[in-house]
Write a structure and sequence with these properties.
There is one protein chain. By secondary structure, the protein is of the alpha+beta class. The protein has a single domain, classed as 2-Layer Sandwich (YaeB-like fold), CATH 3.30.2310. The radius of gyration is 13 Å and the shape is globular.
């Protein structure tokens, strides 16, 4: 089974998402964070289940989609994956921000 490591950036993104949604509803903020975290669990057994990130075009940097969010991750080896960032799909993604 692959170890999933959340980078400081990804954790910060989750907190920001929670704060933003939480301004309107604490309940839905909590639910969205749970959905995002649960979505990554598929990576434990299906490392390549996400698609390649078009802006980056690197086979080991991939993304999962959960609602309006892109969960961008990097496959380091067959034992570890780093969650790099959680990015809202309405915003532009720049490779240098990863």
């Amino acid at each position: 089974m692959v170890q999933i490591n959340w980078t400081f950036q990804a954790i910060s993104d989750l907190k920001s998402i929670g704060k933003y949604i939480g301004r309107d509803s604490k309940k839905y903020a909590r639910l969205q964070i749970i959905k995002l975290r649960n979505r990554t669990k598929i990576l434990h057994t299906q490392t390549y289940s996400g698609k390649s990130v078009p802006e980056i075009n690197h086979p080991k940097i991939r993304e999962l989609i959960e609602g309006n969010y892109r969960i961008i991750y990097k496959i380091l080896n067959n034992k570890r994956i780093d969650i790099l960032t959680i990015h809202h799909s309405a915003r532009n993604l720049k490779a240098e921000n990863l």
